[in-house]
Amino acid sequence: MQNALDNFYLSQEEPNRSCFLTLRDIILDYSEEITPDFKYGLPFFMFKGKMFCYLWQDKKTKQPYISIAAGSKIEHPALFQGDRKRFKLLYIEPELDISVETIYSVFDLAIKVAG
Questions:
Q1: Which has the closest alpha carbon to 54: 30, 24, 26?
Q2: 79 Cβ partners below 8 Å, 6+ apart?
Q3: What are 29-45's pLDDT values in tens digits?
Q4: Per-residue pLDDT for 1 more than 60?
């Protein structure tokens, strides 16, 4: 039986389904202290019990992104803030190779401010 979190991933259309599943693995491989959760209909990832990031897609373009909870406290050229006050987005091109180095460099900064 599928739970809501599994259903989220499996209900996505390709290429976003594969992208989201790969991002899930990349995020969970970053640290044993990051755990998956499901909040507000989205896959969230918690660091030491606090919101760390979540996965979603742009409403217009359907481009996947990782939303970083401590984004407003960090600066990285790959992050986009737009009109958000707290979160910054790391957009991912689903049909290109995912830069694990870029994701982890953003996570390194986010972990420092997340405590």
A1: 24
A2: 68, 71, 88, 89, 90, 106
A3: 999 999 999 999 999 99
A4: no
